[in-house]
């Protein structure tokens, strides 16, 4: 099978590119932009050596199919916390009630796959009981930021007719706002119970967990008549693994080791726009 080898970094030394090209048995190096380069018809037999060199130089690399085009994709599915946005919303909500350290520790354990997600979410949300619901708006206004490159990536999806699904183990308060703000096609997440203007410490309905994320991917895929191969999933934590496995291609974005190991591609050093060259040719 023929591959294109994509090399990306904040600074990509010319000498490093030449060394990688030699390992990949490639003669020509084409610049995609100032941070991304394509080595066409690359040999992946030295992938381990290329990976080691890229890690040393803090470069991201990916062997993608030579004949792949952006418009081969029809659905892009994205996680929210620490993927589309820079924060973990529940940790920041917890900060408003003075339990961020405790909640963040549970979040980290869940993202590493050490705690079943539904259990971890139930435990974390319980610690929020009694907090004024106005705190959710404060988190959105004061702390929520889009991941650098997110808007450029979404614009690329939209330009090429790729439907977008934001699916999160987080909360509808945030996913609904981001769906409207970014003109996403679909969004799904968990709903916090609010009574008399305060969080009760409970989730309404069934918790959207790892299986729920995969189910939503398949639901939308079927609705828009999209094959698995035409689906891309992007995530960072263990709760994203089933969703990523259900997609034809997956990207681990600044992810936990367990996710990097199982994803099609890993982006460890670049912003979210680095997904674009992995989609293929225009």
From TrEMBL:
Entry's EC annotation: 3.1.3.3
Ranges for domain DUF4072: 5-49
- Which CDD domains does the record cross-reference, listed alphabetically? HAD_PSP (cd07500)
In terms of superkingdom, the source organism counts as Bacteria
Q: Which BP terms in the Gene Ontology apply to this protein?
A: L-serine biosynthetic process
Query: Per the entry, which co-factors are needed?
Result: Mg(2+)
Active-site residues? 79 (nucleophile), 81 (proton donor)
Entry annotated with the keyword Transcription regulation = no
Keyword field: Amino-acid biosynthesis, Hydrolase, Magnesium, Metal-binding, Serine biosynthesis
The molecular function terms in GO held by this entry are: L-phosphoserine phosphatase activity; magnesium ion binding
Task: Give Gene Ontology CC terms.
Answer: cytoplasm
**Which pathway or pathways does this protein act in?**
Amino-acid biosynthesis; L-serine biosynthesis; L-serine from 3-phospho-D-glycerate: step 3/3
| Magnesium among keywords | yes
EC supergroup of this enzyme? hydrolase
The reaction(s) annotated as catalysed by this protein in its Swiss-Prot or TrEMBL entry are: O-phospho-D-serine + H2O = D-serine + phosphate; O-phospho-L-serine + H2O = L-serine + phosphate
Family to which this protein belongs: Belongs to the HAD-like hydrolase superfamily. SerB family.
Q: What is this protein identified as?
A: Phosphoserine phosphatase
Q: State the organism of origin.
A: Sulfuriferula nivalis
